[in-house]
Design goal:
433 residues; alpha/beta; Rossmann fold; 2 domains; seven-stranded parallel β-sheet; 18 helices; 14% strand; globular
Length: 433
């Protein structure tokens, strides 16, 4: 009954959802494309049952790339079908994998759309990255004996409180999940409190600790450093959100009075904001270069705007100090392991509930520092510029911390393979459905 009411409400909201897509398409035209896929109208998969991987957006796609790569390497005979919800996630799948995987937008959480998707793809298993849980999606898989594994799962206290408010809907959903590979024990307990059977829970750590610097990142960084001057100090502010760039430009202006050759690399989180941030920087009086227009910046460039996709690791590599955005504003922060694996000292704001465990792990190893506000950020950046040996030591500890916490990738890969290998009879026996 609860799921029926939820579905009815979702159907009623479809006109508003489509209107939102259309409005978002003003800044990002891709939101106005491929709507049929969002209702399950995808090209049929012929003669094979794929592993269905759902990675909602760019961040989840980046996290799952190493696992999918290993899966393709070890089992080239098993096709992989990746779904996402955002154009940035979609673009990353296509740019990285090409035609080695199938891809579409994920159907909306509507019974009809999901039935259509299942009929056309006939997946053998479903892998959901992190915590993109939808009641009808999971019910649809259970109806068709398709095991569901939530991999690299996380559930913050804030998210758990939200699910508690709709426990009447969340608990039946969690009962139908076949397994959850969770990043840490605290998040695992929150899943259990919401209704997940403890025997379905496995604490593997975060797959994000298995991150590696991509080939070519360091050589691209050398080109950038040579272009603006190898002696100039460089700070990167990555994955920034609305209201953060204004604070960062103020910090940069204040630091410039002391370090007049300082370079700021700024990488906004969402592509639709690139042009606006460029205009803001120019109006503030800074000599600003856009990577999309000038891949190698002029020697007098002050602010280098990373307005391309898939190049963040190279930009991290070009910096001396890394600030991870979404954390000076209440967005929950972004992945601090990407600069850490490059051996950079990592700074992050106080709002980090999306990465609490990872931030705490790095902080305990003195590889990361949480700054409470823009004034604290300015102070710490100045200290690291004045004491480069301190910055280098933080970066070394960051790399060592990542090496010490690797291993989740192989554990989660084995779980994915086990789920994909389950026959219908085994699955029914295991879950009782």
């Amino acid at each position: 009954m609860a799921r029926w009411l939820y579905s009815l409400l979702f159907y009623c909201l479809i006109p508003m959802i489509l209107l939102k897509l259309w409005l978002r398409g003003k800044q990002t035209p891709e939101y106005r494309c491929r709507w049929a896929e969002r209702f399950g109208f995808v090209r049929a998969v012929e003669n094979a049952r794929p592993i269905w991987v759902h990675a909602v957006s760019f961040g989840e796609t980046m996290a799952i790339i190493p696992l999918v790569e290993k899966l393709l390497e070890e089992h080239p005979e098993v096709p992989v079908f990746i779904t996402s919800m955002t154009p940035t996630g979609s673009a990353r799948v296509v740019s990285h994998f090409g035609d080695r995987v199938r891809h579409s937008y994920c159907p909306y959480d509507l019974p009809g759309a999901l039935a259509r998707f299942h009929k056309r793809t006939n997946p053998r298993s479903c892998v959901i990255v992190e915590t993109e849980l939808w009641p009808n999606l999971i019910h649809s898989c259970a109806q068709r004996n398709v095991p569901v594994l939530v991999t690299n799962a996380r559930l913050s206290a804030r998210s758990a409180a939200g699910y508690q408010r709709i426990k009447w809907l969340a608990e039946p959903m969690l009962r139908r999940i076949s397994g959850v590979a969770v990043q840490n024990a605290n998040d695992g307990e929150r899943f259990v409190e919401l209704g997940l059977a403890r025997e379905k829970l496995k604490v593997t750590g975060s797959i994000k600790f298995d991150v590696k610097a991509p080939q070519g990142a360091e050589s691209e960084a050398v080109k950038l450093r040579n272009a603006w001057g190898v002696e100039r100090p460089v700070i990167i502010a990555a994955s920034t959100h609305d209201n953060e760039e204004t604070q960062l430009l103020q910090v940069y202006r204040n630091l410039q009075s002391r370090y007049n050759d300082l370079v700021l690399i700024m990488v906004p989180r969402h592509p639709e904001r690139f042009a606006g941030i460029y205009d803001q920087s120019v109006k503030a009086g800074f000599r600003t270069c856009r990577r999309s227009l000038t891949p190698l910046p002029a020697a007098d460039c002050q602010i280098y705007l990373g307005d391309t996709m898939g190049e963040l690791m190279a930009l991290y590599s070009a910096a001396d100090i890394a600030f991870v955005g979404g954390s000076l504003v209440e967005r929950g922060g972004h992945n601090p392991l990407e600069p850490a694996v490059q051996g950079k000292p990592v700074l992050i704001g106080p709002y980090v509930h999306n990465f609490t465990q990872i931030v705490e792990t790095l902080e305990q190893e003195l590889a990361l520092q949480v700054v409470t506000d823009k004034q604290a950020l300015q102070q710490v950046v100045a200290e690291l510029i004045d004491h480069p040996e301190q910055a280098r030591a933080m970066g070394i500890r960051a790399r060592q911390c990542i090496e010490a916490n690797r291993g989740a990738l192989n554990q989660q890969l084995q779980l994915v393979k086990q789920m994909a290998a389950l026959s219908t009879a085994q699955y029914v026996e295991r879950t009782g459905r």
